[in-house]
Amino acid sequence: MQQEQIRRFTERYLAAFSAHIMETHPDYLTVKLPVEVDKDIGNRPFYWTWVEKMNLPYQPMVLTFYFDSERKPEGLRAEHLHLGAGRLQQIFQSARKHGSFVCMYEQTASPRTGGRRTTPLVPWLGLNWKVSFICDKKRDMLLHFGINLHQPQIVTDFYPFLQQLSLAPSIPDYCYTLERRLSLTEAAAIAERETRRLLDAEDGRWAEEARQRLNEELQILEAYYAELVSREAESRERDSGAADGDESSDSGKSGGSEAHAVSLPDVLAKTATEAAQVNQSVPAPPVHIAPPTVQPATEPSAAREEPQSSGGRILDFLRANGIPETPREEIDQTEWRSSTPEEEKQRRMDELRWQYEPRIEVQFINGGLFYLQSAPPAKNRRIL
What we know:
eight-stranded mixed beta sheet, 10 helices, 20% strand
């Protein structure tokens, strides 16, 4: 969507609400927002709540939009309106909200002077659907239906036909509308049946190919997790065998230590006897015993560790000044556990089915009630 298209769309949107354009310029425009537009794109819901509750006169919001990023108006508080702008997205949402259903009249030529001939206008219900064929790929198809409410018949490609007509929200002079013999609910049901008929006529090979790709992916997934389970079983067997070997080696070492412990007292007795004989032959030197010295207790280190164990000096300061501590969040980890291979496999299979499973989604885009003098082409018309 180019900047020129954005400007034309914005001007059409504002003109649909009869907004007051205060200033228009090739680079920007200044507009005073009406009530409906202000509520949709003004971003001040609390202001409107207060005005409506207090029954006060409102102050309209004035906005300036510029469309070329290199031509920002000087001296004005302007807002750049581009495709990624949040304000433009609000305008799109507002247009979708207020323009999802319209009532329009075909503007006919005025009768000649002095003539009193009136023109009948036939009621038509126009519906636009979007049909999406979804699997790992996606294809969209637009359907434009027109249902004659006076004489039951349905027309395809109704919207391109409407684009060729001159339509307005007010009925023209010297025209009247014919009665509606079909209700809107009955007409919508007819459009739904026609949609189902067209979908049944569609080629279904895309769905068969999608299911085939899904089966291939599921087979690959089955083979992968079967191999994973077999490898885990082999790993457990190797671990159990290694644990048995470690236990046998530990038992052998303990037996050797016991044998060594049996012979150790004899060695110690022999050593003591030899030492006594040496002491008897060599006189002992005089021994001076020094008075015991008292080492000071290391209290400062304990004092330094106390604030750290109690939470730090910052928490001590907070406690001393009566500042409440923020309670620690308790995290419940009872449900936090690693997934089993079966759970991972089931989750992956669900993802594959969501991605590849063929399905059809039908979405209503917009519609309207149209009173027309012209008739659609007969080739697109089918009598009900």
